[in-house]
Design a protein that fits this description.
The protein is of the alpha+beta class. It is 44% helix and 22% strand. Strand 1 and strand 2 form a beta hairpin.
Length: 131
């Protein structure tokens, strides 16, 4: 399998550093939909790649097993549709950070979550391409 078609979302591409996450929420560009919020930043860096963070608030989804289910669905949807952003990131030495925050109090099925994530990624891609 070539690097261009690599669909993996390795642990190294999940944002865990508190200061990076705080900076993303402070300086990031926000995209809101009825189910998801996407917050993203782009930096020119030698550490190119797409780094992601997922959040499902406890006040909206109180049970942990439901929050985990939603996070798994978001991760899978993002993993399957991230290749275009990875390619742009690698070609232009960009560090793209994306936070995906679930903002609905209902548990949606995978297809709905995937559709919203695709729309968010397309929006991010178009804004990166224009700048």
């Amino acid at each position: 399998m070539s690097a261009e078609f690599n669909n993996k979302l390795n642990k190294g591409f999940i944002l865990k550093n508190k200061s990076e996450i705080e900076e993303l929420f402070k300086k990031g560009i926000r995209l809101n939909s009825d189910m998801l919020k996407a917050i993203w930043t782009v930096d020119i860096s030698d550490k190119s790649g797409v780094f992601v963070f997922f959040s499902v608030p406890k006040r909206l989804i109180p049970k942990a097993h439901n929050r985990n289910l939603i996070k798994r669905r978001m991760k899978e949807a993002l993993r399957q549709n991230l290749s275009l952003l990875k390619k742009v990131s690698k070609q232009n030495n960009l560090c793209i950070r994306i936070a995906v925050v679930y903002s609905s109090d209902k548990i949606h099925d995978y297809q709905e979550i995937e559709n919203k994530i695709i729309l968010s990624l397309q929006s991010v891609f178009s804004k990166i391409s224009n700048s």
